[in-house]
Amino acid sequence: MSNEMNSSNFIRNIIINDLETGKHDSIITRFPPEPNGYLHIGHAKSICLNFGLAEDFNGRVNLRFDDTNPLKEDVEYVNSIKEDVKWLGFNWNNLYFASDYFDEMYNRAILLIKKGKAYVCDLNQDQIREYRGTLTEPGVESPYRNRSIEENLELFEKMKNGEFEDGEKVLRAKIDMSSPNINFRDPIIYRISHSTHHNTGDKWCIYPMYAFAHPIEDAIEGITHSICTLEFEDQRSLYDWFVRECEMENVPRQIEFARLNLTNTVMSKRKLKQLVDEGVVDGWDDPRMPTISGVRRRGYTSESIRNFCREIGVSKADSTVDSQLLDYFLREDLQPKAPLAMGVLRPLKLVITNYPEDKVEMLEIENNAKDESKGTRLVPFSRELYIEQDDFMEEPVKKYFRLFPGNEVRLKGAYFVKCNDVIKDENGNVVEIHCTYDPETKSGSGFTGRKVKSTIHWVDAKNAVACEFRLFEPLILDDDPENEGKHFLEQINPKSIEVLQGFSEPTQIKDAKVLDKFQFVRNGFFSVDSKYSTKDKLVFNRVVPLKSSFKPQK
Ligand code: ATP
Ligand code: MG
């Protein structure tokens, strides 16, 4: 998997330059998720980038949990993130938790206080916001800004010792309330939160803020290139300020890149969590979710995600990638790997009235239409079969060449059959069609007597394996769900899942295990579901159809 992200990009150029000029002997990157949810495809872009760069430049990469917000974080998320990164095919050199550095961060905050660069402030959240000013107006200094160093040290210690309530006081950097960059208007460094942390338990009741914590974490680990998404661009100079004023030995460089957005996809843990919490989906690993665990369960392969990330590359401009590009990489990856099988999703009984009652033939059918080396298999064939409801029309529309009364088609790998009779129930629904077959037309026999215009797939009814097939459409109807003014929960596609009870031929799937992939002829690529499959019934998720049929709404 080397050269994972070897498409040339501006970040690579920075690194090449830093190595050539001797600024660094080797690089260290990190992937720093907050364990407050499951990873999504957007994170995969960041993972491929950070791990790929470390690999390509013989550097190192840390997996670091940015766990500075105890209320939202959980070990469930820590474990899922580790699993997902590994599944994507990457190994970290070191695993760290930001919370491991709480002592060091606390000491650096004390250093700032001692240098007169931080103070304890009693304003509440709303007041702090008001005092901060706007883009056009300077901020107003806090009345607590000029507390003495001694008083600040004493108050900060009391904050740490739990002598104040949540929100009663904060520690702020003392920078410049009239800076044109609002981030410099005395940002908060520490807040009080009497809550239990998944890692440090009740040891702390003050927690560092991201803007302060992140540069310190990077510097402690000796990160050379700290890659983050574009929304942190305005914070870069504040990042540098903290590294400098906290007198960190290592000086990491923050570099921003554009986050991945996908059409018809919400890509933020907060929103994905809402889909889970409100029961719109069946958990974080619902096959409709863009989470790594969701797409894995759906049947996506890590290779296709990595290929996709390489293709989209890295840039400085925000854009939305068509999710059909990911489908393309899935088909490319699955085509040579997934064995062919015949499966009928919406069954209609077809009886061959001139085929002997007890006869069963084993027909030899190829396992991969595009690759002879995959060999053939024997598929049972007898008098009663299932075909797709769609492959029959009692009153055919124009250009319909499949089965209708009086018409003849080829059953794939078998014979020509001609429809003679239609059997209906009392409500007039077609329940069975009666055909005759022509023994002369057996596939491979070299028959050239006449031609048919279509070939349909089938499953032998007597030997069919009952299966459930789950088909998906995008969960979100709007192709741009981040559009202002539209709430994503009001754009849920009511047809995002369709559950069908059908049949598969027995041969290919008899030993199928969870996550095994198949190409069901004409129906697409499918993967065995890990949650709903039982030993009595396989449940297949459609990974992707053979061709795209979904048209995004405007
Ligand atoms: P979310 O808004 O989904 O919670 P986040 O940025 O808050 O995302 P983190 O756990 O902080 O999530 O992210 C870990 C890393 O993944 C960060 O470096 C972040 O920039 C990156 N990342 C998150 N979302 C995307 C995305 N859509 N595209 C590329 N990188 C992303
Ligand atoms: Mg976040």
Automatic annotation (TrEMBL):
Annotated residues for binding of L-glutamine: D66, Y210
Where ATP binds, per the record, is at 34-36, 40-46, 229, 259-260, 267-269
Q: Which top-level group of life is the source organism from? A: Bacteria
Q: Where is the signal peptide?
A: none
The record places the motif ('HIGH' region) at 33-43
Question: GO MF terms on file?
Answer: ATP binding; glutamine-tRNA ligase activity
Protein's name according to its UniProt entry: Glutamine--tRNA ligase
Q: Which gene encodes it?
A: glnS
